[in-house]
Amino acid sequence: MRLCFLLWTAAGSLWGCSGTRSAATKGELKVDEVKVEQVGGFAGFGGARLKSSGIVKISSLSGSDRAALDALFQRQRGRRPDTPGPQSADQLRYRLTRVTPTGEETVEAGEAEVPAAVKASVSTKIE
Question: Is this model's pTM higher than 0.70 or not?
Answer without folding.
Answer: no
